[in-house]
Write a structure and sequence with these properties.
It is a single chain. This protein has 567 residues and is of the alpha/beta class. 64% of the residues lie in helices and 11% in strands. It is built from 19 helices and ten strands. The strands form two sheets. Strands 6-7-8-3-9-10 form a six-stranded mixed sheet, with helices on both faces. Strands 2-1-4-5 form a four-stranded antiparallel sheet, with helices on one face. It is elongated. GO terms for molecular function: ABC-type oligopeptide transporter activity; ATP binding; ATP hydrolysis activity.
Length: 567
Amino acid sequence: MKTLKWIWRYARQAKGLLALAVVLMAVESLSALAAVALQQRMIDDVLLSGAHARFWPTLALIGAAYLVHSLLFTFGPHVIHLTVARLRLALGETLMQRLFRLPTATMQQSRTASYVYHFTHDLQTCAHLGASDLPRLVQQVVTALAVIGIMAAASPMMLLAMLGFTALYALLGRRFAPLRKQAAAAVAERRSALLVQLEEGVASTREVVAYHREAWEAERYAGKFGSYFGQVVREGKLINKQLLLSDPLKWGSLLFVLMYGGMLVMDNQLSVGLFVVAVQFTTRLMESLSGVYQYAMDLSGKLAAADRIRAIVEGARDGEGVQPIDGPIRDIAFRAVEFRYDEQPVLRGLELVVTAGQKIALVGPSGGGKSTVASLLARFFEPDAGTLAVSGVPLERIRREAWSERVTIVFQEPYLFPDSIRMNLLLGRQQPPERVEEVCRAMQIHDVIAALPEGYDTVIGERGVTLSGGQRQRLALVRAVLRDPEVLVLDEATSALDLKTERRVQDSLDRLRAGRTTIVIAHRLSTVRNADRIYVIDGGQAVAHGTHDELLRSSALYRGYVSRQGA
């Protein structure tokens, strides 16, 4: 019930269309029933009674009823489709926004394809549940109630028999609903796992071929598919068992009406027209009851999909913060910051200050915590202890949007979209072509782009697979510089470049970022020698800091790095 109420919160956004769909579907059913009821008048009051003068008016009424039914039979589903689209859009926007607020730890523990499954399957199921199934359920209920009323007037005994069949339907629904929900959830889980395997199989094609593991990958796929297929078979057996018990109720009720109604006709207690109509109404009633019953069965499985969406939307999320950033950023300070991945400490009381307008470098051994600093600045995680403050305000109190507008982070492995180079550089922003070309020249990538068949309009492969690692990194740098953020964080952003190209890129960055705050995380010390301040990070702590010359005099650890790299 809670899940249905949750879906209704979104369905209310299209309540006008939803109400129209309900009315149209109800009137459609009533018009069809009216056409059947008018047939009784045609048989008893016109044909058998000899009142031939009423033939054409009665026929016209029957034709009008069928015409209304035909029009609504077409227009009603169209309104339902619009309602489903509106609800799916509302749910999709909420789910997408929610994904961007999921804790990074949660995202890292989940597979990409599982989230894709939520959009391709669960979202559509939720939309149909709230915007399509409801009008159709109302249609079936209205039909059933109308037929019950007509049957009560025609023959109370036949009505009692129909109510008996209805009770059996209800008992079957109560018995099978939880079983169907469990089976549907299990099928969805196996299907999601299969999609994950497919996504990984396609993404890892080069590695699989390079290591000649095609048979191994095929075996993994077969295992996932076998698990999914087995669960589908089990669900199918459950559905067949349900149908085996429910279908006899349909023809059983019809046989009863034929038997009992036929006896009444032979005893002259029931007219021929009413008998014919009663048979048709019995079929309609059982179809409606079957529809309600099937809705109850499908509801169980669809609620499982809705529960998965709801779990994401209402689950844990990163802290939002409410405070804006007033004026330019003065400094960024790490005060006794501690952080751990799972139970492994990474930062141990880190003390670090970034003054606005300076170029700050973080150097040190792998695993020392440098990239964790970038992740904290990106707000992928929050410190376990201590304070990360921006202009004296703890970062967790600042609105995410306000912080995101001020900072850009370029990672070692940038993500590129399977679109044109221009789109990847601009990401929907507007920049003069001259400015784009200027920055590309500065990042030593313009000549590479110009040599491509379509230049800046060349479409690159998924994740930029058609480009080298160094080319992808330079495109990411162009993208960041074009945004011109107040704070730029480079996390091993030039590691794939050769030394000569890296020096040129760093010189251009220094020129383009003059007077702006830049934080560089690097292994190569030659690229950060001119930094205003260099922090040596080791064991999760800033063990030394100063300029290059100061550290050469004061830090044996730094001198060792310089000596080993020949910087």
